[in-house]
Amino acid sequence: QVQLVESGGGLVQDGGSLRLSCAASGRTFDSYAVGWFRQAPGKEREFVVTISRSGRSTYYANSVKGRFTISRDNAKNMVYLQMNSLKPEDTAVYYCALSSVGYSGSSKDYHSWGQGTQVTVSS
Predict the structure, then answer these.
(1) Of the candidates 44, 56, 60, 64, which lies 20 to 30 Å from 71 by C-alpha distance?
(2) Residue 73 in contact with residue 23, Cβ under 8 Å?
(3) Residue 70 burial (CB < 10 Å; 0-12/13-18/19+)?
(4) Strands (E), 30-105
């Protein structure tokens, strides 16, 4: 069973950058697509971006397209989320999770959620 741990969150000013990491345990990490989701206080969990098993295909939410970049290193069991030009509305807890059905924008297709990492963007 694969377990995920997110890191890299923090407090940043409007327009700043952060790089989130998602570390996976287990030997079958490259069998799964990986997605990032976020949840702001009082709001539902929201899809951010996903990456295919090989890393060759990605799919971004319109709200982050052009500002966020996802990548993965299967040799290191890592997925990264580079976030640039951050805005206050990006403030949320960010989660990574695995998908066995290919890369998808629906949280229902994901499992093995990490504990999340807080990102706060101040105006």
Answers:
(1) 44
(2) no
(3) buried
(4) 33-39, 46-51, 58-60, 68-73, 78-83, 92-99
Partnered with residue 48 across adjacent β-strands are none
End-to-end CA distance of the chain: 40
Please state, in angstroms and rounded to a whole number, the distance separating the CA atoms of residues 8 and 26: 21
Give which of 54, 46, 92, 49 is closest to 67, Cα–Cα.
49
- DSSP β-bridge partners for residue 60: 49
| Residue 97 and residue 78 in contact, taking contact as beta carbons nearer than 8 Å | no
Q: Give residue-wise pLDDT tens across range 21-68.
A: 999 998 788 999 999 999 999 999 999 999 999 999 999 999 999 999
